[in-house]
């Protein structure tokens, strides 16, 4: 269909990974634009290499060359620094690139309006050079953690997909694929714990990224299974806010939380 795909979901559920995996499967180049507050068109599209331009001008002054020719030369492709959007538009590889516009909700509304124009026809006008159009329309993915609502005009331009936290089986498959050396019992305990804490009252529920961080740390520590002591010692891999760590420890110390029960792989989790 040639439309961008807007992926929304909680932080850490794997939205960014979708674009990375597609690029790998297609053998295409992944071009990533990380959004942030204050991001503008120049940073996303292109900039002129001013130091190189100045050096060329100084050289012309020494050589007493043709000033008009130099003025034309310094505003050519050779002096252009391509940022992610222009790089995606001008990509000349065998396969269209995968353009990942990550965390679009962090950018300002003004940038969102500019992006809407670029995504409409994948061409831009550089005053000194002219109009540059895409040879191959890139595969475009936009991700959002919903820190603010994306404008309806941009949503209408995209195909939409909401990514949920994975099921027990899917998360187990993710862990064992990423870390084939992990003990099956421990992988199942990790999944059971993560499935249950996501239903609890924490400020920031852990995502798949935290699951993989935890599994990686446990493997590095040469753990084959989980016990209360190991869970408490490694909770910094799962919770990234002091309030959540404090809340967890309070519940454990007050015996309001049974870690053994959290780690148990019960039938309702795997059904």
Descriptive account of the structure:
The protein is α/β, with parallel strands linked by helices. The chain has 2 domains: 5-45 and 83-162, 3-Layer(aba) Sandwich (Rossmann fold), CATH 3.40.50; 168-270, no CATH class. It has 14 helices and 9 strands. The strands form 3 sheets. It has a 5-stranded parallel sheet. Strands 3-4 form a two-stranded antiparallel sheet. The mean pLDDT is 87.
Residue share in helices?
Answer: 40-55%
- Identify low-pLDDT runs: none
Q: Rg from C-alpha positions?
A: 25 Å
Terminal-residue CA separation: 36 Å
Q: What is the multimeric organization of the chains shown? A: single chain
Strand content: 5-15%
Superfamily (CATH H level) name of the largest domain: P-loop containing nucleotide triphosphate hydrolases
Spell out the key features of this protein:
271 residues; alpha/beta; 14 helices; 14% strand; two-stranded antiparallel ribbon
């Amino acid at each position: 269909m040639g439309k961008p795909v807007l992926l929304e979901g909680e932080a850490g559920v794997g939205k960014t990974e979708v674009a990375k995996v597609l690029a790998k499967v297609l053998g295409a180049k992944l071009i990533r634009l990380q959004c942030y507050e204050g991001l503008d068109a120049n940073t996303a599209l292109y900039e002129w290499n001013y130091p190189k331009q100045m050096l060329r001008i100084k050289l012309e002054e020494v050589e007493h060359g043709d000033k008009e020719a130099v003025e034309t030369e310094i505003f050519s492709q050779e002096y252009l620094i391509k940022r992610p959007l222009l790089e995606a538009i001008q990509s000349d590889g065998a396969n269209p690139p995968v353009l990942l516009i990550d965390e679009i909700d962090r950018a300002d509304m003004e940038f969102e309006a500019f992006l809407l124009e670029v995504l409409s026809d994948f061409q831009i006008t550089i005053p000194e050079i002219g109009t540059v159009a895409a040879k191959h329309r890139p595969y475009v993915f936009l991700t959002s953690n919903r820190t603010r609502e994306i404008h309806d005009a941009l949503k209408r331009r995209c195909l939409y997909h909401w990514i949920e936290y994975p099921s027990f089986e899917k998360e187990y498959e993710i862990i064992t694929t990423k870390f084939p050396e992990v003990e099956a019992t421990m992988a199942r305990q990790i999944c059971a714990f993560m499935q249950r804490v996501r239903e609890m009252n924490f400020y920031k529920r852990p995502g798949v990224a935290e699951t993989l961080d935890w599994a990686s740390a446990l493997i590095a520590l040469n753990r084959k299974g989980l016990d209360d002591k190991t869970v408490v010692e490694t909770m910094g891999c799962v919770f990234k806010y002091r309030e959540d760590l404090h809340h967890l420890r309070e519940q454990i110390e007050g015996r309001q939380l049974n870690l053994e029960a959290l780690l148990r792989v019960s039938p309702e989790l795997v059904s």
